[in-house]
Amino acid sequence: MKTECERCLIDSNIPGAELKGGICRYCRIHDKLEKRYPISHKHLLKLSEKVKKSGKRRKYDCLIGISGGCDSSWLLHIVVKFLKLRPLVIHFDNRWNTKQAESNMRKMVDALNVDFVRYQLNKKMYDKLNRAFFEASVSDVDIPNDMAMLAIFKIVAKQYKIKYIFNGHSFRTEGTTPLGWTYMDAKYIQSVYSSRWGGKLEGFPLLTFWKQLKWGLSGIKEVRPLYFVPMKKKTAKMILAKKYCWEDYGGHHLENKYTAFVASYFLPRKFGIDKRIIEYSALIRSGQMTKSEAKKKLEKKPYLTKGILREIRETYPDIDIVMQKPVVDYHFFDTYHKLFRKYRWLIWLAMKFCLLPETFYLKYTRRSE
After folding, report:
1. How far is residue 119's CA from residue 285's CA, in Å, rounded to a whole number?
2. 358 confidence band (pLDDT: 50, 70, 90)
3. Domain boundaries, the chain
4. Torsion sign over Cα 330, 332, 337, 341
């Protein structure tokens, strides 16, 4: 019988829920992060001073990835307008951007007068990799996008001698996705690709476990400034719209056609995974939404336009066949998961020195999963 967390929408059927005293593990993670990363102007300014010092006599203080979505746009606004930093803005273009996302990026970059670089991968190779993930029948079909982005950010940071990469994630508005819903690592990507096409994946920036630590030892740190900022989604969107004519695109993950398809169609219909539960639960914990409001929103099916579905079918013509295939777990493929758990102490040290995010440590090094 399904039991629901007393605070949020997480229930006992969701991987890693671990309800204790009526409260789920993800609420406990939230509370731990709240204590460690309080909303604090003082902490934010202290971070800013460190970043300015590291960028002294260099062209850029930090590197910021932007997607045209709310979180990355809000981060860019704060970094330039309030912290007075000099960021290099980067976008990994998977060729599935919506018109709103493209417009939002252009407006903000122009208005804030920041340097902007766009990176793309070979489309044929990238489509083959995505197709391999679809045909593998796993739920992690959007991780090539995230892994490529992480690797490219590291490469560009080293190229421009930038010591700080700013990540726009906020646990107060996005939460923590269960490992059983989304698993990612470079070995997993290679394994899925090889299972379909054979051989080694060429032309894709694989960020291996040891390479990740090597980048960290070079002095490049990843930080999440929004952990110290009172991130209110509605307020942020209103300010962005007023100052930059920024346009809302409809919801989390929907600024990109590919991620919109995955979150709104592929995951709910094939796996019964609704990632809005994670987002809404985070908003409930941070007092931005009530539980009853969240449940009313969940009554509506995830939104996806017919145009996006048509484009996906044109690029991946076997997608409807894939939707009918039996579900496969990520454990079926080669991963670094055992290595992450074996070197838990090393990842803990990497987290302490901002070489890896704390959520990575909390999710990937647990021996019970």
Report:
1. 36
2. confident
3. 37-250+330-364
4. positive
**Structural tokens at position 314:** 């044109």
Q: How far apart are CA 296 and CA 298, in angstroms?
A: 5
Calpha distance 68→74 (Å, rounded): 10
Three-state secondary structure readout of 106-143: HHHHHHHCCEEEEECCCHHHHHHHHHHHHHHCCCCCCH
CA angle 239, 244, 246 (to 5 degrees): 80
Question: Read out DSSP for 293-322?
Answer: HHHHHHTSPPP--HHHHHHHHHHSTTHHHH
233-289 pLDDT, tens digit each: 889 999 999 999 999 877 667 789 999 999 999 999 999 999 999 999 999 999 999
Strand, coil or helix: 289 = coil
From 86, 62, 78, 106, select the one nearest 247 (Cα to Cα).
106
Query: Which amino acid would we find at residue 341?
Result: R
| Residue 364: half-sphere exposure toward Cβ, Cα within 13 Å | 25
Would you state the structure tokens that stand for residue 171, as one six-digit string?
A: 């646990």
Q: How far is CA 359 from the centre of its chain?
A: 11
Amino acid found at 67 = S
Secondary structure (3-state) at 20 = strand
Answer for the pair 279, 293: CB distance below 8 angstroms, yes or no.
Answer: no
Condensed to tens digits (0 to 9), the pLDDT of residues 302-343 reads: 888 889 999 999 999 999 999 999 999 999 999 999 999 998
Q: Is 62 helix (H, G, I), strand (E, B) or coil?
A: strand
How far apart (Å, rounded) are the C-alpha atoms in residues 264 and 271?
11
Strand, helix or coil for residue 222: strand
Q: What is the pLDDT of residues 113-140, one digit of tens each?
A: 999 999 999 999 999 999 999 999 999 9
Was domain 37-250+330-364 assigned CATH 3.90.950.10? Answer: no
Q: Is the pTM of this model over 0.85?
A: yes
Question: Within the chain, how many helices (H) and strands (E) appear?
Answer: 18, 5
For the purposes of burial, counting CB atoms within 10 Å of the CB of 346, is it exposed (0-12), middle (13-18) or buried (19 or more)?
Answer: middle
Residue 170's φ and ψ, nearest 5 degrees, are: -130, 120
Greater model confidence, 260 or 219: 260
**226-211-209 Cα angle (round to 5):** 80
